[in-house]
Amino acid sequence: MTFREGARINPGRVSVGGGGRGPKMAIGGGIGGLVIVVLALVLGVDPGSLGIGGVDGGSASQSTASGTLEGCETGADANNNIDCRIAFTAESLDQVWAGQLPTAGLNYVQPDVVLFNGGVDTGGCGSASSDVGPFYCPADSTAYFDSTFFNLLETQYGSSGGPLAQEYVVAHEFGHHLQNLIGDPRRNARGAGAESASVRTELQADCFAGIWAYYADKTPAPGTNEPMLNPLTDRDIADALSAAASVGDDHIQQQSSGRVNPDSWTHGSSAQRQQWFTTGYRTGQISSCDTFAAPDLG
Ligand SMILES: [Zn+2]
Asked: Which of 57, 233, 253, 264 is paired with 100 by a 20 to 30 Å CA distance?
């Protein structure tokens, strides 16, 4: 129950793709996958690489962003429903980063947030299927979430199922949006490996997620003197760390092939992801998240 029961959000904060939560419309896997690959080459944008963990594009389907989320009015709704939880987490992230990003000399601009089911046409990164996992598209400044992923996070990746496990995923994708606003060119470097720029980019997004957790239960919602979140407990933080570990490259490799190969890492190991979330959570300082300068990533 991370959200205060009476917390409120702007009901239009997130959009729902595909005209609602209906069944997906498959259009043929190869084409959608190809679109993503081509756009990645052209734009330097790769939904998979800016996602939460090692999931690759597969079969594609598409839908068009339309509509708003209904029935998500209070924190009680967010505590009961995953789509509402994503929307409330997005609004909490907006509040925290509107306060914190100016400490780095920058103004915060909200990303768009789209919930989709099955597949989605992005505004700048081609079409994506659920197989890509949650991702952020810099070209349209939008974070995309298929809420069915949050079930996989628990059943397939092995995360604990607490709310902060899911909220960490949302906060991670917002971390990529912050990188976009900050504009450090190192976030666009390609390549793989335990010390690669890709891994450093992902670990920085984890660190930013930790900063959100630090402030989320301390930042009053606009017009009130109460934060949207209840005080975070040790259990909540354990859930976030469990999620971070579950999408570590070594954990995913071990699960899928039984072998761990650091040379192909793009997101970092379970231990690294936990460490950088913790760094952000302990310090609350953007400057503590300079993974690009860190001599040792953990
Ligand atoms: Zn990421």
From this structure: 233
Task: Decide: residue 196, CB within 10 A, 0-12 exposed, 13-18 middle, 19+ buried.
Answer: buried
> Is it the case that residue 75 has pLDDT exceeding 90?
yes
Residue 68 neighbours by CB under 8 Å, 6+ apart: 11, 12, 14, 15, 16
- Residue 56: Cβ within 10 Å count: 11
Report CA(225)–ligand 1 centroid distance (Å): 32
CA of 200 to the centre of ligand 1 (A): 10
The share of the chain scoring above pLDDT 70, in percent, equals 84
Is 60 exceeded by the pLDDT of residue 151?
yes
Å from CA of 161 to ligand 1 middle:
20
Q: What is the pTM of this model?
A: 0.87
The beta strand positions in the chain, using DSSP E, are 15-17, 65-68, 112-116, 119-121, 127-129, 135-137, 142-146
Structure tokens at 55: 């999931």
Strands 112-116 and 65-68: unpaired
Centre of ligand 1 from the C-alpha of residue 246, in Å: 13
